[in-house]
Design brief:
mainly alpha, disordered N terminus, Serine Threonine Protein Phosphatase 5, Tetratricopeptide repeat, two-stranded antiparallel sheet, 549 residues, single chain, globular, two-stranded antiparallel ribbon
Length: 549
């Protein structure tokens, strides 16, 4: 299914509508269209909806910085990009870090847009109540999701349920909620939204949220709330309940090919049965589509420069597309895979580009000793369909929630729940994990396979296996740091990789070795959560800095 949908077209109007909200804690308004002048009809509401989604595609979020430049790969990947030395991407973060500040600002900007949309939707006289309810549901889900993206990274945040639209400094004096209360509000928002969202089978468009998006994301939210730092074990049962709502609706399934799934993201195609939520990008920032492209693959792809290919008049980027290759895998991540796991060589690129090897298509296979140099391979620009490829922009979509994760969430919710002693649930949990594994090994998803399946064991064993299965399946999709934080294992796992780094011989002088050493040496226990940005502390006097900062 082609992704050239209404929401993408609506993004062309964002030059106007993006200014309908100000950043939550800005004291100087950025608006030139006020709420009293907008939301008057369905067209204006559509633009406001697009603007609320568009926060995700912003360059400081999934349009750029979140693509391997903020340390979220943790123990499975490190940033190797000199422009980010001394920043959060290098685990050398400070409260004044500009990328951390922009992350905070833009998600609160999105919260404000969602609140404005909900507060003004009734002004649209040409919309039915059912249409308005759907818009409210989308906005409420996004408000919950944006709060979720803040609480998992900062832990202590203000919860904002009304728009802030004036320049009065007193209107932004808002205290932080407890993480538990923040999670409860997120769950309330997503639960309420689910009732009025369309089924995924009707929507068939994962760039917008469906009931499956809401329930699938709720399964993740509840797992996080059950873990550190909130430690609310009763939420494991809720995580299983929400995941089951997605599994039992009968529409979703795993794409039989892991590679094909990612080709869908790369080639402007939807797979709504597996992809439950994704960030939309379109075009290459040329012609009419100058606000819709992103940098997926350009930032977090296979490193590729403009090296000239002898005798052809071309460069490597003509064939494969430019990429700064900001993120590289660790040897630990590589070791998690068996050689027959097809996900390994798609997730962790097994080759590098080299103009001196035309006989192998200018690709040189990496050896078993090349364990620190391998790039993220999930978002390969050579498969892009929009040509010529832009140097700086791509149309590749970015996955936020996949059905594979929902299956793993269900299984983890059983394995980690001290109150669940059901042998039937445990057997089903093993089966769901094995379905994910079978797809990864290229065998029939629904047929037991002794060569691939995990052997039945106890709950502790299954939980430990899930902790390895999640990075195999979801690696480089911005979930790893959050996972090891909620398991209470962030510092120990980062220290483990630091010990691996110390075994790199001094004679190995390539820049990526130096970058790996610096990245893991910089990591500290306090890096579980980012610091509250300095500027926000100055604007909102009720904010309290996170411990250790």
């Amino acid at each position: 299914m082609n992704k050239m949908k209404k929401i993408v077209l609506a993004l062309l109007s964002l030059g106007v509508v993006c200014s309908t909200s100000c950043s939550l804690l800005d004291t100087e308004p950025q608006d030139f269209v006020t709420p009293s002048e907008f939301y008057n009809n369905a067209q204006e509401v559509d633009m406001a909806v697009a603007a609320t989604y568009a926060v995700l595609a912003e360059g400081n979020l999934y349009g750029g910085n979140l693509l391997g430049r903020m340390g979220l790969a943790a123990d499975i990947g490190y940033e190797s990009y000199s422009s980010d030395y001394g920043t959060v991407g290098d685990y050398d973060v400070m409260p004044s870090d500009t990328k951390v500040a922009a992350y905070w600002r833009w998600y609160y900007n999105g919260i404000n847009r969602a609140n404005m949309l909900m507060e003004n939707i009734d002004k649209a006289s040409d919309m039915s109540e059912a249409e308005k309810n759907r818009v409210r549901a989308e906005a409420r889900f996004l408000r919950g999701f944006y709060h979720f993206m803040l609480v998992v990274r900062f832990n202590n945040i203000p919860v904002i349920l009304h728009s802030v639209s004036d320049a009065n400094a007193e209107s932004v004096q808002i205290a932080q909620s407890t993480p538990r209360d923040t999670y409860l509000q997120i769950i309330a928002d997503m639960e309420a939204a689910a009732a009025d969202l369309p089924a995924a089978s009707v929507l068939e468009m994962p760039g917008r949220v469906s009931q499956s998006t809401a329930y699938g994301m709720l399964s993740r939210v509840c797992l996080y709330m059950a873990g550190y730092p909130v430690k609310e074990p009763g939420m494991y049962a809720k995580a299983r309940e929400y995941a089951d709502k997605v599994i039992s609706n009968g529409y979703h399934r795993l794409n039989p090919s892991f590679q094909e799934l990612f080709l869908c993201y790369i080639q402007d195609r939807y797979d709504p049965q597996e992809s439950l939520f994704e960030v939309e990008f379109y075009g290459n920032n040329e012609g009419a589509y100058t606000t819709t492209a992103g940098q997926v693959g350009r930032t977090n792809g296979i490193g590729c420069s403009a090296t000239k290919i002898p005798g052809t008049g071309q460069t490597l980027i003509d064939l494969f597309g430019y990429s700064i290759g900001a993120i590289r895998a660790t040897p630990y991540f590589l070791s998690l895979y068996e050689t027959t796991d097809l996900r390994r060589d798609w997730t962790i690129c097994p080759f590098s580009y080299n103009v001196n090897y035309p006989e192998t298509g200018y690709k040189v296979a990496l050896t078993s000793g090349d364990t620190w140099s391998r790039y993220c391979g999930k978002f390969r620009r050579e498969y892009e369909v929009i040509l010529p490829r832009s140097t700086n922009y791509t149309s590749i979509n970015y996955p936020l929630l996949r059905y594979a994760e929902v299956l793993l969430n269900w299984a983890e919710a059983v394995a980690a729940d001290p109150a669940n002693q059901s042998a039937e649930d445990l057997a089903r949990a093993y089966e769901l994990v094995n379905q994910v594994r079978r797809r990864g090994y290229g065998v029939d998803i629904y047929t037991p396979n002794a060569d691939v399946d995990l052997e039945m064991g106890d709950k502790w064993m299954l939980l430990e296996q899930i902790k390895d299965e999640r990075p195999r399946e979801l690696g480089f999709e911005n979930l790893r740091k959050d996972d090891i934080v909620r398991w209470g294992e962030f510092n120990s796992r980062m220290r483990y990789i630091r010990q691996m780094v110390l075994t790199i011989p001094e004679s190995y002088t390539s820049s990526y070795y130096a970058n790996a050493k610096r990245y893991y040496a910089n990591s500290e226990a306090r890096d579980e959560f980012w610091p509250i940005p300095t500027r926000e502390l100055g604007v909102n006097r009720k904010l309290v800095q996170n411990p250790g900062w």
